[in-house]
Amino acid sequence: MSETTSMNGLMTHLKNNLPAIYEHWVQTHITQVHTENSTGNFQDAAVDTLSTTFILSVSDGHKKAKVITFIINDLLKLKEVDNTSNFSNFERILPVIMAKVDTLSEKFDAPIAWLRLEWLNQSSLTTWSNFQQSLKGFKRNYYRSGIAFTGVQEPWLLLTEMELNANACLYMGNTVSHAGVNANNLNVYLKARHGSSQIPDFSDDLPIISFNTAGVFIDEHTGECHTLDTQPRFKGHRKLLPLSADTTQPIIDMSTNYLARQVQPSGQYVYGYFPCFGRTIDTYNSLRHASSTYALIEGYEACHSFDGYRNDEAKLALANMKVSIDNAMSYLIDELIQTYDDKAYVIDTGGEIKLGANAVAILAVVKYLQVFRNTPKADDYHALAEQLALGIIAMQQDDGSFVHVLHSKDLTLKAKNRIIYYDGEAAFAMMRLYGLTKDTRWLDCVTCAFDYFIEAKHHQAHDHWLSYCSNELIIYKPEKKYFRFAVNNIAGYTDFIKNRITTFPTLLELSMAFHKMLLKLDEYPEFHDVLAGFDVQGFYQALHARANHLMNGFFFPEMAMFYKSPQTILHGFFIRHHSFRVRIDDVEHYLSGLIGYFDFLKTANYPKLAAKKHQSNYDVIHPSTQLYLQLYP
Known about the structure:
Layout: H1 3-16, H2 18-28, E1 34-35, H3 41-50, E2 53-59, E3 66-71, H4 83-90, H5 93-104, E4 114-127, H6 128-135, E5 146-150, E6 156-159, H7 161-166, H8 183-194, E7 207-219, E8 225-227, H9 245-261, E9 272-274, E10 279-280, H10 286-305, H11 312-336, E11 337-340, E12 343-348, E13 352-354, H12 355-371, H13 378-394, E14 405-407, E15 413-415, H14 421-437, H15 440-455, H16 464-476, H17 480-488, H18 494-499, H19 506-521, H20 536-549, H21 557-560, E16 582-583, H22 584-603, H23 613-618, H24 627-631
Parallel strand pairs: 1-4
Antiparallel strand pairs: 2-3, 2-4, 4-7, 5-6, 5-7, 7-8, 9-10, 9-16, 11-12, 12-13, 13-14, 14-15
């Protein structure tokens, strides 16, 4: 497509959506600025410009967005005339935008693909000193507003939330837990955005406006015009309805393909990105290579089931995904695994053998065998899985516990305990292998381990891997103690799952595994008392809230456009408090949780918990089939 054709298409989309954009502007743009104290004329002057100020951001999808601010003074008169005249005046914005997009397009090598138009919908006046002090009350990268300084050549120098985040202006490093001004990054971006002649003096009494925006995003490729959300947790990306099976499916599709694209021809992943300055993460981790490959195979399996993967183009995408999986598996086996007689171990950096690495390697091998049943590698993979499992058994102690880290050079102990995740990973992997082979050695290992987990009160860790494992264990050994452990592993934690400010994707994995346990518990009414006092409905409220909160960690194009290299992060998942880091294991956990959630949404299969005699005795609260709709009226 030529640049002219693309530009014409973008402007056509903008023009066609202008009436709806106008209505949205009328309903949301500010009419006054809230101040900390009465400032009279200053407040009036601020309103005179800010109420008709727009922020335009454009990108070709490959380079970081260019952002400009402009004012349409004639819009001040709109409230004095009727709606028809109002829209007629508002249409004057169109040639202004067209001219500015035309100018900005010269900064890009490819045609403009993404356009984001915003205006202020909330604002408050403070001082530079008070603003800096207020940042200490926000977790790093969780200050969710823009800021504006008084300008020289223009009334206000605006920096939106997206701009502040993408340029690390309020990030003081990973050793500082709260937000704070990074003076160097702020100055560099202010000069680039507004010019060196307008840099403020940053005196303590410098007037500062903090503001939020409403607006729209237009994607030239799809022709879609999305209203940007203004809700506190969801600010910055397109407004979404509560997730359904239909809307979760494309997220799984896009993020699976994203993960597949990170696999290089060698089979090694691009480990991750710090997107603010376009830096790749130059370390590597064998455990996360294996666990991400497991999630990639899960994603392939999910995509293969989607109706949209029936045409030739989609089949080619699946074939390419399969190539990525095979390359990643080959790298795991040929480069990261070493055999020791009848055992095999994944070797990680520093010559470490980690219990969890062997576990997730088993998960990847077993999942591969389940999804690609006719693979010619079946015998080799079965043999490898057994060797890895024997390696885990060799790390199990007489009391059922596992040692966590060995030296690869001689298999001597390096660390008895490293992280509790390893225990759950190991037990879950052995259960998955038992499910495939029915070899009782693997089941015996897990039952011995679970006796230790119960005695050691491992449930206090609320570990999603332990939830996965207990759910698998009750399939083959439906004993009350395992149901009780699964309940204890989440009891008292549902408020955290529902309300935690970070996206914390493993909380959804924990919840989905527990949901499956509740379905299994339906079959054993004699065990329903393990739910004594547990609020099942509250749990499902938390589950749905957590799943929807995960969308706040997805790099939609309207967010990715502000970072240095949008294509490296587009449709990946990020961790906000780690500088919006996108790493393969971050994508893995989001993806695995959402696949489980998608399966749930397809059926809306809530547990029956039908033994009514236990309701009064144990105060078990049951979910309603209408719960999902009640959560998001």
